[in-house]
Structure formats: C-alpha cells, structure tokens
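Good morning,

Both structures are done.
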Amino acid sequence: QICVRVIEGRQLPGNNIKPVVKVHVCGQTHRTRIKRGNNPYFDEIFFYNVHMTPLELLDETVSIRVYDSYSLRADCLMGEFKVGHAVMRKWLLLSDPEDTNSGAKGYMKVSMFVLGTGDEPPV
C-alpha cells in the first residue's frame, strides 16, 4: 500500500486561482478538494492498494500534478512533480512537463510512504 499526504502549496502562479491536486500512482488517481489562492492548505491523505513486490515498486513513479480548476480550459495544468521514493514533509518544486526550462511553477509539500499490510502511516 502506498500512502500519499498532500499537505499544502506555496507560490502557485496565477490570479484568482482555485488549485486542485491530482496524485497518480500505479494507474490510480485521487484528487484533493478544490481550494482558493496561491498558498492553499490541503492536508489530505490518499491510500493506493498496490499488488507489487518492493522491487517492482521501485520502477513506479508517483505523479503529483496541480491544476487550476477555475481556468476556462478544463483543468489547466499548473505544474507537476514526479517522485519515485518515500518523502517526509518535503517541499517539491513544480515544473511544466512541456517546458522544463520555464522555471518554478510553485511548490507542494507532501509526504509519501510505502506501507506493509497493517502498518500505520507516520504523521
């Protein structure tokens, strides 16, 4: 089981934005509630049940994407980060997957863990 906690965002670009975070793990996607502003606080935890060996999990990446739900275009992607291992309350730099040289697209604070059956996630 993989546990991802989306904590908060900082310096997300745009005016009058309503960010939503989509976390994609092993073919499964969860999304946060929609928030307002450039520094949203989410504090949402998602669990993904995966049936893989630890070695297979090492090949998987976790995609954390932030969208502006308020945009006229349906779910306009604001930034993305892909991670392949456990992180604990870390700030992740978001970037544009189409233009990686365009600089920072804000930051997301997340925690992510791989849990064995019956394990409790750290806070």
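Second structure follows.
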Amino acid sequence: MDERLLQAFGGLSLQPRRSRFAGRLVLLRGLPGSGKSTLARQLKRDSPGAVVLSTDDFFIENGVYVFEPDFLEDAHKWNQKRARKAMKNGKSPVIIDNTNIHAWEMKPYVMMACENRYEVVFQEPDTPWKFNVQELTRRNTHHVPRQKIQQMKEQYEHNVTFHSVLQSEKPHRDERRSRGPNAAYSMGARSCPPPALSNRRPHRAHTNNTPFNQRGGFPSGF
C-alpha cells in the first residue's frame, strides 16, 4: 500500500504529526485472561473521557455474560458501529477491549480511525502470564478452555502495525470456523443452550438505547 493510498485514508502519513489527529483509538490485544479489561479500566481512570467498548458487551444481559456463537458476527458489527459513532462524536480515546488475535479483526476499527483522523495505538497488557496458557486458563472469566487458549496463542499475530492491519484480509467464513479464535469461543466458553436462542432476541436486547457500563461503555447519547 503506497503513501498516496495511506493519505487517502484520512491523511495519515508514515510519521504524522500528533497535532493532525482529532483523537486516539487504542486497540487492546491479548489472550483471554491476560489482563486486557484490567488495562482498559486503568486507561479509563487515566482518561475519564475515554470510551471503552468490547464485543463481549453484546452478550451481557442483566449483568450476566451468556455467549451465543451464532450471534458473534452481529456482535462484532454492533461494536464497530458503537466505535464509529464515538469517533463521529469526537470521543477520545476510544478503547477497543477485544482479543484482536489477527490483524484483520482490527481492520474495520483502523479504517474508521483513518476516516476520522484518529491516531491508532496497539497495546497489550504487560502481565508476566500473558502467554502462559496454564495461568490464562485459570484467570480468564469466560471459561475459555486450555485447548482453545493454546490454539489462540499459536495464531496470535505479533508486531502488528498500522500498515499490516490495513493490508490484512479477512479469511473466508469456512476458514474462520476451522481455525479462527472467535469461532472457538464456543468450544467450552459458557454459552446458552440452543433452545434458548430464539427467546433472547439479542438484536432487541442490545439496541442503541441500552447503556453498557460494565467495561466503561457509554449510553446512546454520548
């Protein structure tokens, strides 16, 4: 991707001046249990105006997390929509609290950051156990099994950059199902039994009028 194309994506050059940015996007990365959400809360304390958004929020109802793999794609689109709205309204920093194992998973956020002239920062928890599968299995709150975390660790893309994310491509659906980290959250993470899926209506439950403050999120009027 040449410099002219990068400039088309919001005027960002290889070494843009900080004064040219309208805000900051922080993309948190890390395996389940590595300390991402703790880091997000710390960043929120340091910057009270920060907006913390997680795809996990889609699956929280009445304070309870119930993962439904059939709605994962919708959950990601819902979180991306919230991030886009936050940037359009000038909120900063916008913090995305997702695992972001692969570069392509962050591409929609980086693209919207370019469109809104937001600085892009990638950040991982600085915890000594962030790649220790045994400790991650013990610590993660969504009961992701050890085998899944090991798989995610093997797929984790290190040293991502602004450019590598923009150049990344989303794999086909079948490929994601066979090896993607998001698909495997259904392999042991606490999930709702299939008969209950039709009763929960996630789209209705998670409208723009619903505040999500469990991770420092924001109400619809932000």
